[in-house]
Amino acid sequence: xxxxxxxxxxxxxxxxxxxxxxxxxxxxxxxxxxxxxxxxxxxxxxxxxxxxxxxxxxxxxxxxxxxxxxxxxxxxxxxxxxxxxxxxxxxxxxxxxxxxxxxxxxxxxxxxxxxxxxxxxxxxxxxxxxxxxxxxxxxxxxxxxxxxxxxxxxxxxxxxxxxxxxxxxxxxxxxxxxxxxxxxxxxxxxxxxxxxxxxxxxxxxxxxxxxxxxxxxxxxxxxxxxxxxxxxxxxxxxxxxxxxxxxxxxxxxxxxxxxxxxxxxxxxxxxxxxxxxxxxxxxxxxxxxxxxxxxxxxxxxxxxxxxxxxxxxxxxxxxxxxxxxxxxxxxxxxxxxxxxxxxxxxxxxxxxxxxxxxxxxxxxxxxxxxxxxxxxxxxxxxxxxxxxxxxxxxxxxxxxxxxxxxxxxxxxxxxxxxxxxxxxxxxxxxxxxxxxxxxxxxxxxxxxxxxxxxxxxxx
Length: 459
Fold this sequence. Notes:
Blueprint: H1 6-18, H2 20-33, H3 45-79, H4 84-103, H5 106-126, E1 132-138, E2 142-144, E3 149-157, E4 166-172, E5 175-181, E6 189-196, E7 202-206, E8 210-214, E9 221-225, E10 230-235, E11 255-261, E12 266-272, H6 284-290, E13 294-302, E14 305-310, H7 320-339, E15 343-348, E16 351-352, H8 358-367, H9 377-387, E17 393-398, H10 404-412, E18 419-425, E19 432-436, E20 439-444, H11 450-458
Parallel strand pairs: 2-10, 14-15, 14-17, 17-18, 18-20
Antiparallel strand pairs: 1-3, 3-6, 4-5, 4-8, 7-10, 8-9, 11-13, 12-13, 15-16, 19-20
Helix pairs in contact: 1-2, 2-3, 4-5, 7-8, 9-10
């Protein structure tokens, strides 16, 4: 049996009929009624309207999603065929016809009729299906700044009838290249070559190749995609550092420590054989002389682990050219370390870069986008010290805006015993070497100077 006054039962019935809106209104009104010592207040109209709007939006969200899907699946492909000029002509046609009907202007009706005929004439040019076989081929998808990026488009007529002349569009980044196709017989192949400028570091999206069929007045334009887009990586310019890093980055000979090891490359002494030792390390001559098994004892060496801190804070660089020079310096040092099979970590203010292979490193270097930020090169150096605590050589690659005081603070974050160097780029500066406490500061103004200053640092 239900309890409560008839008014409460009626309110409950209305709440159930309203569904989610009724529950929200009940919660909104019930909160004030339960406060001790308070008189239940009326619902504010703004709160009711807000709750009703939210409920309506949630109810219509699935419908809106379905309409959006249908629009892009069916309506947009048809409407996108009409160019801007076509929409202007179509609007003028409707206005002229309405004016002719309203005021009896035969000239307006005639003009509307002519415009309608133009549309029918344009439709005849874009109807039909083209049977193309399109092959987009880039000779190399990864080039360095200044290298030639050459590609080709091979188009074949795969149908059994001749194809009318048409245009092919090839988007290249923010630009679009247009290739004109002649009238093609069945089985005929037409090939065009193109060159992409690589004056600056970037990831350029090439494609997709699309054919364009349009009427002479360009009222209608029909595009058909034939290939997938291809990413062209324009890597930063790098220089070869063969032998220049060997003076201070040790590998095979390493830096010996006081810790002893049973397997390494630095021979230390002989000791008695212990069960479990590798028999390959038994020194047979000493064993024969002493009449007991003797094994080699080694000193543990420290394998070179290179860490590079690359600041991408553009406030620390005077120009874009200086910023690009810093990226080229870091890429050159990192690429040389990978070539020599050394452990490598590269860190920027936006996080670490992939260093598994030289290709991965240069790809991530290409994606770097500098921006003004609060985190400076000093903050990045502290992060590097925490992220790569086992580094043996640390490079700080910074711009000319970084002061000597900041470099001293960056070097202070490096653990004792770690070789630290700062490469300070300054466009047009002469190569130089200086010391700030235990930090070696190398100044370069051109990428070709990098090998020279590294040799000076190793001297």
